[in-house]
Amino acid sequence: MTIKGFIVKSTIVTYTRPMAFPPFAVTVDLVVFTIRDDALHVLTIRRGESPFKGRKALPGGFVKVNEDLDTAAARELLEETNIGSVDRLHLEQLGTYGTPKRDPRMRTVSVAYLAFAADLATPVAGTDAASAQWSPLSATLSTKMAFDHLTILQDGLERARAKLEYTTLAASFCSNPFTIADLRHVYELVWDTTIDPRNFHRKVLASEGFVEPTGEHTSAGRGRPAQLFRPGPATQLHPPVRRQH
Amino acid sequence: MTIKGFIVKSTIVTYTRPMAFPPFAVTVDLVVFTIRDDALHVLTIRRGESPFKGRKALPGGFVKVNEDLDTAAARELLEETNIGSVDRLHLEQLGTYGTPKRDPRMRTVSVAYLAFAADLATPVAGTDAASAQWSPLSATLSTKMAFDHLTILQDGLERARAKLEYTTLAASFCSNPFTIADLRHVYELVWDTTIDPRNFHRKVLASEGFVEPTGEHTSAGRGRPAQLFRPGPATQLHPPVRRQH
DNA sequence: CGAATAGTGTCTTTAAGACACTATTGA
DNA sequence: TCAATAGTGTCTTAAAGACACTATTCG
User: Fold this and answer.
1) Residue B200 phi/psi, 5° resolution?
2) pLDDT per residue over B94-126, tens digit each?
3) Is position B186 within any domain?
4) Which terminal CB of chain A, N or C, has fewer other CB atoms within 10 Å?
């Protein structure tokens, strides 16, 4: 078993004794969704090195020796975007991917995380190939991605779709404050459907704790000005907003 | 960084070069539920060695060098129970637990799996401390378990409860064939509620593909003989069987 | 004004829950 | 016979969906 040298930050762990368990590299990978230009986008990087040089990949990196998995995911997210803090942002574990040959260099187990961001979270500027970009989701789903990242992305999308049904996470996609139409737009783009605006409006207002009125209204735009809301205290929806079945 | 020697099966990986990433041990842990004696039970082992000597723990073990995570989980499950094959059994990834100090001996990341078994899956006989036992769930939830296994168990229970709502997995708890009352019993024990037998009966029969009649009936027992069913082809329930909210 | 979007009222349909009632067995 | 469990019918209630209608803005 040979493992190519690969230096991560400045951490090099030297280990010279026989080990009693197979050593694995553990990474976190991030599926970060946002809405911009009226379409769902995912945060990607372009690989500058072999393997999979030139392909799109999910942002991520090695978990540090004394770092919690959740902390590693939050750290990578902060490094890749200029979102101020991880507080007003949803980050959850998606699943773990550890097929033996998924990384040809070494045996790697990747813990994938799913995040929803409002559009203010623009990627960190940078000209190197590893800087993150927002990629339109629909196009990205039909490209070849590095490693098993396309599978992870598909799983992340399905999780996001399911979560909108019974949680208030759609509000995480909206900058604050937002209108009911903004919120509806999230559902329509993530589910790739259309929703009756009138029934949706009534439904959201009837869901205790989903949104709270700010008292303000939108100033400009076609049509009647809309009320502005902020996210309410609820996290789960009873009853859920149902997808077509 | 020192790691105590610890031999797993007969696999010893010798690694003598500087490594460019922090080495982790990767394990799988299993939350296996079954119903016996009219109560939900979970498969546990009793730890025979330090750390946490004498405490209950979830069955599990190291992932092998060239083994997929799912395969490792299935292998451990087959090793601990005498269920014939993994075919008629539900096994899904639950989550990954990797807090730095969760195993005091070394940095370990554990990928937890959730399984539902019909009662025919009795644990492997054996007198050593590591042999698996069915433990009543309610009692187990109030014991101190090894590592973070109590947290994993709680997460597994919540996942199981949620999954019964919108999937046909309750049938995985029933030996084949089963009655509608058997199926209702699964819901009642996992959710710790009572369900109206008459409404449940109608609801299950109205769910396309949930169960299929075998044409047979139960022979003995109090009351009118019940029809026997086998699991149908459906995996998802539309509409779901709702929990109280 | 008309087009566009916000928001309300109300009817229909679907599904959940309560519960009376019949069916078929063993003790 | 009664107690127990299986299974059906039907009414009530809650929520989803269709859609007419009013409200308020911009061009």
Assistant:
1) -65, -45
2) 999 999 999 999 999 999 999 999 877 677 766
3) yes
4) C
- The pLDDT value recorded for residue B200 is 98
- B18 touches A12 (CB < 8 A): yes
Contact check, Cβ <8 Å, A21/B25: yes
From CA A138, how far away is CA B69, in angstroms rounded?
29
Q: pTM here?
A: 0.91
CATH number at residue B207: 1.10.10.10
Say how many CB pairs under 8 Å bridge A and B. Answer: 140
Closest CA to B118 of B90, B141, B93: B90
Indicate the SS3 state at residue A192.
coil
Round and report the angstrom distance from CA (B38) to C1' (C27): 24
Alpha carbons A24 and A99: distance in angstroms, whole number: 12
Decide the pairing of beta strands A25-36 and B13-14. unpaired
Q: Rounded CA gap, B209 and B12, in Å?
A: 48
DSSP β-ladder status, B39-46 and B133-136: antiparallel
Of the residues B10, B21, B114, B161, the best mutation for testing chain A's interface (the one with the most A CB atoms within 10 Å of its CB) is B21
Last residue of a domain, one of B121, B141, B164: B164
DSSP A13: E
The two structure tokens encoding residue A126: 């940078």
Sign of CA dihedral A145, A148, A154, A160: negative
Structure tokens at A160: 């996001």
Mutation to test the A interface, candidates B16, B19, B62, B152, most A Cβ within 10 Å: B19
- Over residues B224-236, the pLDDT tens digits come to 999 999 999 999 9
Q: Could you give the maximum distance between any two Cα atoms of chain A, in Å?
A: 72
Beta strands in chain A (DSSP E): 13-14, 18-19, 25-36, 39-46, 56-57, 60-62, 90-97, 108-116, 133-136, 211-217, 227-231
Q: What is the CATH classification number for the domain harbouring A86?
A: 3.90.79.10
d(CA A66, CA A64): 6
Same domain, B178 and B85: no
Nucleic strand D under 7 Å from the C-beta of A240: yes
Q: What range does the domain containing A112 cover? A: 25-165
- Cα–Cα distance, A80 to A86 (Å, whole number): 12
Q: Are A173 and A33 in contact (CB under 8 A)?
A: yes
> What pLDDT was estimated at residue A200?
98
CB nearest B1 (choices: A13, A23, A96)? A13
Q: At what angle do helices B197-206 and B180-191 cross, to 10 degrees?
A: 110
